[in-house]
Design brief:
By secondary structure, this protein is α/β, with parallel strands linked by helices. Among the domains are: 160 residues, Rossmann fold (3-Layer(aba) Sandwich), CATH 3.40.50.11380; 169 residues, Glycogen Phosphorylase B (Rossmann fold). A 7-stranded parallel beta sheet has the order 3-2-1-4-5-6-7, with helices on one face. A 6-stranded parallel beta sheet has the order 10-9-8-11-12-13, sandwiched between helices. Helix 25 packs antiparallel against helix 26. The termini are far apart.
Length: 859
């Protein structure tokens, strides 16, 4: 028996497994319980990838020699191979207790611990392995794997490099080195690692597939496709290469072939999560969002902890306005993969959209801890600071964004707008010029159309910006209408025309203060009015007034875009009037789903939305004169008088505050401009300073919007020879008290190119005249229309020089100004501007005409 056992061992060492088994069978035929033969035959089964039989055979050998550390260790190996990691750990520890002290036993213990997710304990065991077997590359390789799992890539990198140094042709070490470098974003080094591996394994499909992944990360799409195709030539059913090829083809825009690749992978393995995710992303690109959602959900069935599946589903929900569901998905993604910076950032953006600003800041900061170089995260952090009024921190975040990516035009636009808001005009003209020449209307520039209204750009440039914004934010949703259940509208005649008003502003907001009486005066016999509010319920009297005046007031603040669109469609709205456009809190995505046959842009956004889903813009003959229609994607509907509605019930407090209480001097001419400071541009401010120098003892009364603007404006005044004390700032007050302050002002000064809108009608309602300058853009012509419809056409100028000259003439001619003020007071209650019943009839007639035109197929 001893000779046969020696022969069996000799065959095993020579890798002659057939001979080993023959000798072992002969021994066991004569002695069925022979421990040595059972042990060796078990090792044959283990090498032959039959671990369960190995467990049985070596286990029988161990019964005969229960204290043999080699048998114990090899039984542990068999359990490790059969994925019974806990039992493998028990056996390796038992072997160590019995005297096994070599490096390999500790390496195997580390593998068993790591496979149970106990990476810290695995690290300890593997470090012992490297100490006891420092020249064995596998100990360093496996320690590197544990450190990778622990999120310590630099230490892992050192281990892989050590393994490669010990054995340059160690394919696994070279492969893991390349993968780690790729995951660390060190793509050129990863490329070199995989190219070296190709010299060792030129026909191995895994190497070509991995090389393709690196090329994809580098944006080298053609090279990536070539590598994936090579991997598939070597292994036609290689599902990872099929899925990756699909993803690479998607990046090239070859969506049909990309989908076919993923479908081939899924035909081989229907639960292959990567292919499900990639096919889902392709379906998103193809606007088949329903299929995309189903694919992501299938991926989660295959792998409930898939961070990518949760993240993709969250992104899909977010684009549909399903914010609560999106938040849940992002949080689940982070439970599975807490180290993904992009998920923290997307969670933060969703929290911000939900108004949870502090939580959003915390999530953005976590994202930046993980990935400090993320351009998008720095930008979104800036946007959040801006919304919170933390302008100094927002400016720093914008600047950090641009330091990393100077052509990130969204950040450049945000920084420029905020610089205007704090009146920091240092070298601002070059910023406007950069935006004009490099970004406006350019593909993927993503400039905020609302911010651009404040800048000295032309109406055509504003339109180009809005069109690009609509392409980026609305077109994909619009293309998915049919799949989301928004097919062709079926027009059903109603006894009354159904008009829907859609806005975030139905609370204490300028739009509500203008509109409140509109809802009270609509002709209920001819029109059925629906008010859709997605803004906050602040419990204010103005919200209560609108609610009580509205036949149907619906709070849709918790709904997704598609839910609201279905509601509007279910309500049978004939004309949907959007009051927000692209201003803060807007939801133009609802319009993209086309819930109403006629969709209208009015009042909230002074410009074109550039979107195919909006049919009309409401204006008047002064705001959009004949020939200016080319600057608007919508058809222009002109009201007979002013386009702006006004509320005759706007209360003005009976008590007028004293000049001293408002910080004004006891005597002297008071100019005022209660516009947002972002509207004050350097050339207008310079004109104001020249005006003040021409009117001795005068002061300029401005709205206090932020402390930085106050400091900068006072400094700018001093630079132009006007002491900072001649600028007085009015703190925000409730509207009736604010309007009463106009009694202390002598003359209002308009801004340019974004002029006074609600502030203009406020001033005239309170009896204070305004001088305006009209330009080419919608926003620059609103005050002119207001003045004309208040009977004050002579206060509308067409140049900065004429504006400045008229203001000085009025301020230095007591009789002339007194006459203007008297005519304003005498005509206030009879002029078209404040004839609200007349306005309501005009708007109703416009809605009726728009709908009839649509019914007749002319829309």
């Amino acid at each position: 028996m001893a000779d046969k056992l020696q022969q069996a061992f000799a065959c095993f060492n020579a890798q002659n497994l057939v001979g080993t088994e023959r000798f072992c069978r002969e021994i066991l035929g004569g002695e069925p319980g022979h421990a040595g033969a059972l042990h060796l035959l078990g090792m044959v089964r283990l090498v032959s990838d039959q671990p369960h039989e190995a467990v049985s055979l070596i286990g029988r050998a161990l019964e005969a020699n229960p204290r043999d550390p080699t048998v114990i260790e090899n039984l542990g190996l068999a359990h490790l191979a059969s994925k019974d990691y806990k039992q493998a750990e028990v056996l390796f520890r038992r072997a160590i207790e019995q005297g096994a002290a070599h490096g390999m036993i500790f390496m195997r213990l580390g593998l068993a611990l790591g496979s149970q997710g106990r990476l810290a304990e695995a690290e300890t065991a593997l470090r012992t392995a490297t100490e006891r077997a420092p020249s064995d590359p596998d100990t360093h390789l496996n320690l590197g794997n544990a450190l990778t799992g622990l999120g310590r890539p630099e230490e892992a990198l050192a281990c892989y490099r050590k393994a490669v140094a010990l054995q340059p042709r160690h394919a696994d070490a070279q492969y893991n080195l390349g993968m780690l470098l790729n995951n660390m974003g060190r793509y050129e080094e990863a490329l070199a690692a995989f190219r070296h591996l190709l010299t060792l394994m030129p026909e191995h499909p895994d190497v070509h597939n991995s090389l393709g992944l690196v090329h994809a990360q580098l944006g080298q799409r053609d090279e990536a496709v070539r590598c994936f195709r090579k991997a598939l030539a070597l292994a036609p059913n290689y599902i990872h290469a099929l899925s990756n090829l699909g993803n690479a083809l998607r990046a090239q825009g070859q969506l049909d072939e990309a989908a076919a690749c993923c479908e081939r992978a899924l035909a081989i393995r229907p639960d292959f999560a990567d292919a499900l995710l990639n096919l889902g992303s392709i379906r998103v690109e193809q606007m088949r969002v329903g299929e995309a959602q189903a694919l992501y959900e299938r991926a989660l069935q295959a792998d409930p902890r898939s961070a990518d599946a949760h993240r993709n589903l969250g992104l899909l929900f977010r684009t549909q306005g399903r914010m609560k569901e999106a938040l849940d998905c992002y949080r689940k993604a982070l439970e599975s993969a807490p180290g993904q910076a992009v998920v923290h950032a997307e969670l933060a953006s969703t929290l911000r959209d939900c108004g949870e600003f502090d939580a959003a800041l915390a999530a953005y900061r976590k994202a930046l801890e993980i990935d400090p170089q993320s351009v998008a995260t720095h930008y979104n952090l800036a946007e959040t600071f801006k919304v919170m009024g933390r302008f100094d921190e927002a400016i720093v975040a914008y600047q950090r964004t641009l330091e990393q990516k100077p052509d990130y035009y969204r950040a450049l636009g945000g920084l420029t707008y905020l610089r205007q808001h704090v009146c920091d005009w240092n070298a601002i003209a070059p910023l406007w010029e950069r935006l004009r020449t490099e970004a406006v209307g350019k593909p993927d520039s993503a400039l905020s159309p609302f911010s651009v209204l404040y800048m000295p750009f032309s109406a055509q440039e504003q339109l180009a910006c809005a069109q690009e914004w609509a392409r980026l934010t609305l077109d994909r949703l619009a293309a998915a209408r049919a799949e989301l259940g928004f097919g062709d509208l079926v027009r059903e005649p109603h006894p009354r025309l159904r008009i829907g008003y859609l806005s975030w502003d139905f609370h204490q907001h300028a739009t509500s203060y203008l509109m409140a009486e509109l809802f009270e005066l609509h002709d209920r016999d001819r029109f059925e009015i629906f008010v859709y509010s997605f803004g906050p319920d602040d419990g204010s009297p103005i919200r209560a007034r609108i609610r009580s005046a509205s036949e149907h007031f619906v709070d849709i603040s918790g709904e997704s875009y598609s839910e609201t669109a279905r509601r509007i469609r279910g309500d049978g709205i004939d004309v949907l009037v959007d009051l927000k456009g692209y201003t803060m809190g807007s939801r133009p995505q609802i319009l993209a789903l086309r819930p109403a046959p006629v969709q209208v842009n009015w009042l909230g956004f002074p410009g074109s939305l550039g979107a195919a889903c909006v049919d009309y813009i409401v204006a008047d003959s002064f705001i959009i004169p004949e020939g200016a229609e080319r600057h608007y994607s919508e058809k222009v509907v002109r009201l007979p008088d002013c386009y702006q509605v006004n509320d005759r019930k706007r209360e003005i407090a009976a008590m007028t505050p004293t000049r001293e209480a408002c910080g004004l001097p006891g005597a002297g001419f008071v100019f005022c401009s209660f516009n947002q400071t972002a509207k004050i541009l350097p050339d207008v401010f310079a004109a104001w300073m020249r005006i003040m120098k021409a009117v001795p003892g005068s002061v300029l009364w401005l709205l206090e919007t932020n402390r930085w603007a106050m400091d900068n404006l006072r400094r700018a005044a001093g630079d132009q020879g006007v002491t900072g004390e001649r600028l007085v700032f009015a703190r925000p007050r409730p509207l009736p008290e604010h309007l009463a302050r106009y009694r202390l002002a002598d003359l209002c000064l308009d801004t340019f190119p974004y002029g006074s809108h609600t502030t203009a009608s406020d001033a005239l309602w309170a009896g204070c005249p305004l001088v305006s300058r009209a330009g080419e853009t919608f926003a620059s012509r609103v005050a002119g229309s207001i003045l004309i419809n208040a009977g004050m056409r002579e206060l509308v100028t067409d140049s900065l020089e004429a504006y400045e000259r008229l203001v000085v003439e009025l301020a230095t001619s007591t009789d002339r100004l007194r006459d203007v003020r008297q005519r304003l007071q005498d005509g206030r209650d009879s002029c078209p501007l404040f004839d609200t019943p007349r306005f309501v009839r005009n708007l109703e007639q416009a809605c009726q005409s728009m709908y009839e035109t649509s019914v007749n197929g002319k829309n």
